[in-house]
Amino acid sequence: MVDVAVLDQLSIIALLMIVFIGLPHGALDGAIAMHLGAGMGIASVLQFLSLYLLCGVIVVLIWYNFSALSLLIFLIISMVHFGWCDANSKISSLFFIQIICHGGIVIFGIVYFHIDEVIPLFDILTQGNSNLPIQVSVYMFYGIIFFTVLYFIFIFKTQSSILRLIELSIIWLIVITFPPLLGFAVYFCFVHTARHVRNIWRKLEVVISPKVIMMQTSILTLLSWLLGLAAYYGFDSGDFNTNIIRIVFIGLAALTVPHMILVDVFFRNK
């Protein structure tokens, strides 16, 4: 059990930002699925929702049986997902470096620079077994420093992606100076979510009515909030900190895996 002081006022604000600003961007998955053919009829809609929820349930079940490994895998795939959304280079090698640098600093940089604050959070998510994800995160950060140096060299040689490099520098500043939950929330809500919504919306509005996109997104957002509320009371540990941190971050993992499969595998390829 973690002390109540883990969640100070800024941490509460950060979690609220994640839930009410960041989380709804994943609700665009309904419109994405419709674009990919899942909206052709009631049967296809139900099939998509069933598979999406089943994937989330499997993630939760695996997490509760292998929590430390699950957290580590979640950190790595989050790095890839965030970095992939931020990367914009047409040069394949630089694109790969951007994925590592942009996604990695948000995930593993926060752990490295705020390790004393992150350990209690990871202990909650791993039932006290945070050694593996903490240690691997530190080593991953060393690798990110190496790739960031390559990033700087590459940019100054090619004179490309300067704006992304400036963005990365600002993210480094946020990661270093902000408390861990607030730093993550600022990136998740105002960089990743904003960019994801803008990119997806531009592609979808060509083939789907904006009104339909908004309706589907609103319904799925409301459903995700209701599921989170049900999980909060259904898995009540007796401690507010433990409840809210597990619901938010294990819930994010449960939604991120099917979200990544849909967006990064099927939608990007189409």
Structure description:
- The structure is a single chain.
- The protein is mostly helical.
- It has 11 helices and no strands.
- It has helices at 9-22, 29-38, 42-65, 67-86, 92-113, 115-126, 131-158, 162-177, 180-204, 210-234, 240-269.
- Helix 1 (9-22) runs parallel beside helix 9 (180-204), helix 4 (67-86) packs across helix 11 (240-269) and helix 5 (92-113) packs across helix 7 (131-158).
- The protein is globular.
- Residues 1-5 have low confidence and may be disordered.
Kindly summarize this structure in a few lines.
This protein is an all-alpha fold.
- Mean pLDDT over all positions: 88
Structural class, by secondary structure, is: mainly alpha
Number of strands: 0
Structure annotation, total helices = 11
Strand content: under 5%
In terms of per-residue confidence, which ranges show pLDDT below 50 for 5 or more consecutive residues?
Answer: 1-5
Q: So what's the overall shape?
A: globular
For the record, give the distance between the C-alpha atoms at the N and C termini, rounded to a whole number.
46 Å
Q: What composes the largest sheet?
A: none
Radius of gyration: 19 Å
Q: How many structural domains are formed by the residues?
A: 1
Order of helices and strands: HHHHHHHHHHH
How helix-rich are the residues, as a percent range?
over 70%
Give the topology, please.
Layout: H1 9-22, H2 29-38, H3 42-65, H4 67-86, H5 92-113, H6 115-126, H7 131-158, H8 162-177, H9 180-204, H10 210-234, H11 240-269
Helix pairs in contact: 1-9, 2-3, 2-11, 3-4, 3-11, 4-5, 4-7, 4-11, 5-6, 5-7, 5-8, 5-9, 8-9
